[in-house]
Amino acid sequence: MALLFTDSTYDINLGLLSDELNWLELKSHLGQKASAILQSETQNLCQAHSVNPQDLKAIITVSGPGFYTGLRLSEGFADIFKVFRVPCFSFYSYEIPRWCGHQSGVWMTKAYRGEYFFHQWDGDTSSNTLVATKDLPEYLKKFEHVFIHSLPAIDQELKNYTSTIDLLKAMPSIIIGEVLGNKLQRESFYFRAPEDEFRVSI
Question: pTM (2 decimals)?
Answer without folding.
Answer: 0.92
